[in-house]
Amino acid sequence: MSITTDRDAKAQIINAIEATGVVTSDEYDIDRILRLAFDFQMPEGFRQVVSVDEFWEIVRDSEKAPAEADALS
């Protein structure tokens, strides 16, 4: 699957987080995850540059504080 836009990359991140069925993406800083886990190269677009384990570590580290997550709901 080609990820050509940041919107597509964010959608992939959100889908992965929400596929767990335990949490929602609102609880995480999606922009931070995108910056740390993906790279953009022309003309290919975005590609994940970390392992699956590293991705989930970045997700865990990108959890918003409860007040911050509530403010965005």
Q: What would you say this structure looks like, in words?
A:
- There is one protein chain.
- The chain is mainly α.
- The protein has one domain (6-64).
- 52% of the residues lie in helices and 11% in strands.
- It is built from four helices and two strands; from the N terminus they run ααββαα.
- It has helices at residues 6-18, 30-37, 52-61, 66-72, and strands spanning 38-41, 45-48.
- Strands 1-2 form a two-stranded antiparallel ribbon.
- Helix 2 runs antiparallel to helix 3 (52-61).
- It starts with 5 loop residues before the first helix and ends with a helix.
- The mean pLDDT is 89.
Q: What is the overall pLDDT average?
A: 89
Number of strands: 2
Rg over alpha carbons: 12 Å
Oligomer: single chain
Report the total helices: 4
Largest sheet: 2 strands, antiparallel
Content-based structural category:
mainly alpha
Strand fraction: 5-15%
Sum up the overall morphology in one term. elongated
| Strand arrangement across the biggest beta sheet | 1-2
End-to-end Cα distance, whole Å, is: 30 Å
Features:
73 residues, mainly alpha, two-stranded antiparallel sheet, 4 helices, 2 strands, 52% helix, 11% strand, elongated
